[in-house]
């Protein structure tokens, strides 16, 4: 990133970041340089973040981690401090979209300087959404990572169209309402996927699989029918629901589109092998988890990034498996420049998409909050909610809540 601006007065030359210290070892705080924003970038003072299973996969399993310390975090909410010069290659997002003092949020992951678990980030302006007036920063940090994931997966891996802006005659012209299974619909990814499917009018065929305590809420968010993965017979129940939804019972495959929001070899993929038929497309959140992380220090988690190596003898011939990699969502040029700047704030402001419920993680230090959240992820405690915690409490920049 060519740096062509200087740090504004009052911004420290270094700041705190939460990083791994080794595989399955306690997290640590490191001091890292605060980077002035180059072309098309923005410097943000980070007030809130949220934890995702990816950080557990990285900290305990070393997933895609080259070396320690490794700075964590994919989501952020905070205050714009300063802007770099306009990116001459960006077709959209004019420089004056953002101003110092704006409350913003987003999903960024490419470089250390962009990671959300630090008090200042320097990130591309296209990875930043302005906070709509109806949202708090605590709500906003639950959104971007997994709303981007849901929209990327439904388009890139499952081939659905999500035109933007939605044409006025979309509901009349879009007659395609395939049966879609969302397995793990109470996960953060699943909750956003349901709402995206509802907004674009695909919800008539959506079957949601989650614990029964969530079913009422999942129907409110757009599921047509629900099954409980914790009860015996979930596979038969799901196939029966598909028969109820399909007017034409001879339709093959019964469930053409399957979104596995969990990616657990034994918990989601094995039952899905019994549901998917030839020509079913199955999008799987990577990594596939062969063994979950646990508080038993002797056992390390095991992951697999190649879906073709998982349960290979158990899939019916002709099932199409896709491993989801949201970190490549910018290959879609329209999403690259519009998803975070325009589409996400508009969906939130209109109420089309609701943020996940938040569980606020308290702690007297940045490290304590980060570690507590990681420990809760290891215990697989989140259920229909996102772990949200305060990042900067140094008060250098006015980041009071809106
Ligand atoms: N590759 C990518 O692009 C990408 C992007 C985003 C996320 N991911 C991965 O996707 C996974 C989910 O992420 P997340 O943030 O959405 O997780 P999350 O919200 O923390 O997931 C927790 C939920 O998982 C549900 N669950 C657990 N085991 C299940 C099973 N066997 N069947 C159905 N539901 C089950 C639980 O449902 P109940 O409450 O109903 O029990 C719980 O609500 C993680 O491994 C993450 O790393 C990958």
UniProtKB/TrEMBL annotation:
CDD domains: enoyl_reductase_like. Gene3D superfamilies: Medium-chain alcohol dehydrogenases, catalytic domain, NAD(P)-binding Rossmann-like Domain. The lineage of its organism: Eukaryota, Fungi, Dikarya, Ascomycota, Pezizomycotina. GO terms for molecular function: oxidoreductase activity, acting on NAD(P)H. InterPro entries: ADH-like_N, ER, GroES-like_sf, NAD(P)-bd_dom_sf, Trans-enoyl_RdTase-like. Pfam families: ADH_N (PF08240). Belongs to the zinc-containing alcohol dehydrogenase family. Keywords: Oxidoreductase. Signal peptide: none annotated. PANTHER family: ENOYL REDUCTASE (ER) DOMAIN-CONTAINING PROTEIN, HYPOTHETICAL OXIDOREDUCTASE (EUROFUNG). It comes from Apodospora peruviana. SMART domains: PKS_ER (SM00829). Residues 22-388 form the Enoyl reductase (ER) domain. This is Chaperonin 10-like protein.
